[in-house]
Amino acid sequence: MAGCNSSTSGGPSWAVPLGRRDSRTANRALANQKLPGPSDTLDVLKSSFRNVGCNDNFDLVALSGAHTFGRAQCRFFRGRLYDFNNTGKPDPTLDRTLLKQLRELCPQGGNGGVLANFDVKTPDVFDNKYFSNLRLRKGLLQSDQELFSTPGADTAAIVEDFGRNQNAFFKNFVTSMIRMGNLKPLQEIKGRLD
Q1: What is the pLDDT along the chain (194 residues), one digit of tens a residue?
Q2: Which UniProt keywords apply (predicted)?
């Protein structure tokens, strides 16, 4: 077992089983095909999680919580700011103050590579503030905000729980990371690098 540690940024740590082989290079086309997109609806997110063997509620919400840390380029959320779902209007689930700030950072026709923090409260700390942000309609990506703002979503109660209880988030995040790490690992002969 090797350790995985997000505790240097305030997050949990966990043991990672050794012996699986992962790629030595990234495959952008495959990632774009297999990973959820920044504008996905909750139904699409749930389907993509089920299709790989993760559950579509706790795994989905817990792993999305990794967005408590890091940044996204304007190109991945600009549609929410100006033309949500081809309406010519901003996403109605986006907080108006955050909308104004993001429009200043990411003007229409501006540089799509400009970075914005996923977490507006504590962008460099792995904590549960991401979930508090969603409750305040301050999720950066549409796919994040969908977890809380989709009417009737079973994920909203999990967002509420993780927003109130950081230990519950950390525990479920570790469980979901281990589960995701065990999806179809290459092992033994297939896993050897010769």
Answers
A1: 444 555 566 777 777 776 666 667 777 887 777 788 999 999 999 999 998 888 889 999 999 999 998 999 999 999 999 999 999 999 999 999 999 999 999 999 999 999 999 999 999 999 999 999 999 999 999 999 999 999 999 999 999 999 999 999 999 999 998 888 777 655 555 544 44
A2: Oxidoreductase, Peroxidase
Structure tokens belonging to residue 97: 């103050």
Tokens of 88: 């010519």
Question: How many residues does the structure list for the chain?
Answer: 194
- What phi and psi, each to the nearest 5 degrees, are found at residue 5? -135, 115
